[in-house]
Amino acid sequence: MPDSSDLRFTKEHEWARVDGDVATVGITDYAQQSLGDIVYVELPKVGAQVSQFGAVGVVESVKAVSDLFSPLGGEITEINGTLENDPAAVNREPYEGGWMFKIRLSDGSQTSQLLSAEEYDRLTMAS
Amino acid sequence: MLQAIGVPSLEKLLEVPEAVRLREPIEIVPALSEAAIVKRFEHFAAKNAFGWPSFLGAGSYRHYAPPAIAALAMRGEFLTAYTPYQAEVSQGYLQAIYEWQTYICLLTGMDIANASVYDGATALAEAAIMAINANGRRRVLVARAVHPNYRAVLKTYCDGLDVAIDELPIASDGRTDVSRLRETLAGKSYACAVFASPNFFGIVDAPDDAAQSALAESETIGIAVVAEALSLAALRPPASWGAQIVAGEAQSFGIPIAYGGPYAGFIAASKEQMRRIPGRLAGKTVDANGNEAFVLTLQAREQHIRRERATSNICTNQAHCALIATIYLALLGSSGLRDVASANLARSRELATRVASIRGCRLEFEAPFFNEVVVNVGAPAAGVLERLAEHRILGGVDLGRYYPELSDCILMAATEVTTSAEIAALGAALEEIVNVPAGV
């Protein structure tokens, strides 16, 4: 997993890269592999207020539809527009080009509720 | 499990209690030969008003279906084909559905259409649900001039979703009163506004420029209802007034009236609504060898994949009825369809002229109409219709059943199969029934 030291994870297989009071969010390599070819990503609207672990969107593959949860609470500042025409970017680069949205954090201490890379690895190894 | 519900055995579970068991033999007639049975049912069938001149419309229309339709549609490959989930063995049907979708888009001016739904009424309900999910608003505005049964089905769906419905009144000319539309929509509380054109009274009732801009400004989704699909060959398409979703009924395209069904509803929408459209979608693609192939596509919308996130429970389509409609449209083509529509216009004008010439009768509304007219007979419509039935004529629909203020009015339809002789017979009977002495 690239640059895993600065990523935090959720049990629902999202990752967050925190930089000051802004976090970038996407789904993990484990998630994209499980889902299969991703055909559509429904992202939250810019400006939307989201709460930690709240459902903010949907990821569709040919065989399943999966809720997208936000690892942290705050306001959506940016969404990855390229996913509209190239949802497969999530499969190819789940941590880079396949990023989904950015949040301005409402409460930086919420990151302590997230899993570290090792904790997340143990979670996915166990399943 | 038997233990859990306290029943000692399977036999006991299936046992019918003594108290409710039937003790006498069931009264059915003794066995008859096949010929005798056929004769018995011919006797019952003879009690139908078969072959009477009929001016019934109101959502189910008498149109001519060329015999070529049945010759093709009743082929076993179509009649007993299974749902096309396995594309490899369903190419014929999938292509037919794709062509149906294409025809619906061409006729309505929309970008995308689905593989059909049960009927026009449920198509409207599904369209409203699409709108509610598109903008999150929880109220629906619907013209009172939309088919009463469609509005009733819409209400059933909306009640389940806690969505409120408000109505736009009918203006004196038979169109929808849009004079207060801008104020009504200003609060941006309506997910959609529903208009039917032709409306239930047969009147052309598309929103005018002012109404269209009211819809646009308030970002209210316009839904067009088309209960008489043939009108699409005579009137400007719903896309032309800015409708984003079209919900309609394809019965007019060769599907038998059949006492109310089965019919085939259609839903068509603009590209923005593509992912919200319910039901099946047939798509065209290429297979591994580069050959053209048809498949069910965008299946992640459907409820068997989306499950609790689904916005609709529909997981089927009216494949055979939609096939009939597709064959009808292919047989007639656009020029043939226009010819049939023109004949409808001619016959309904002939009917209107004849009826308006009867003392005691008048046309209730003045606005332009397609193939139906509202005739005020100056007396309770129900009684007049009974008298017409004594003359072996099905005069039309008693509007008082749905609109109390129109209890003296009959909704009459005339199509390409209505003859001048039938109109003459109706005229003569009405002259007698609506017996107004001279000088009044």
Task: Summarize it.
Chain A has 127 residues and is an alpha+beta fold. Chain A has helices at 29-35, 89-92, 117-126, and strands spanning 7-9, 14-19, 22-27, 38-42, 49-50, 55-61, 65-69, 74-79, 101-105. In chain B, 37% of the residues lie in helices and 13% in strands.
CATH class of chain A: Mainly Beta
Distance between the termini of chain A: 18 Å
Helix content of chain B: 25-40%
For the termini of chain B, the CA-CA separation is: 80 Å
| The CATH homologous superfamily of the largest domain in chain B | Type I PLP-dependent aspartate aminotransferase-like (Major domain)
User: Going across the major beta sheet of chain B, what is the strand order?
Assistant: 1-7-6-5-4-2-3
Quickly give the CATH architecture of chain A: Beta Barrel
What is the count of β-strands of chain B? Answer: 13
- Number of discrete domains of chain B: 2
- CATH topology of chain A, by name, is OB fold (Dihydrolipoamide Acetyltransferase, E2P)
Task: Determine Rg of chain B (CA atoms, Å).
Answer: 25 Å
Residues in β-strands, percent of chain B: 5-15%
Structure characteristics:
heterodimer; A: 127 residues; alpha+beta; OB fold (Dihydrolipoamide Acetyltransferase, E2P); six-stranded antiparallel beta sheet; three-stranded antiparallel beta sheet; 3 helices; 17% helix; globular; B: 440 residues; alpha/beta; Aspartate Aminotransferase, domain 2; Aspartate Aminotransferase, domain 1; 2 domains; seven-stranded mixed beta sheet; four-stranded antiparallel beta sheet; 14 helices; 13 strands
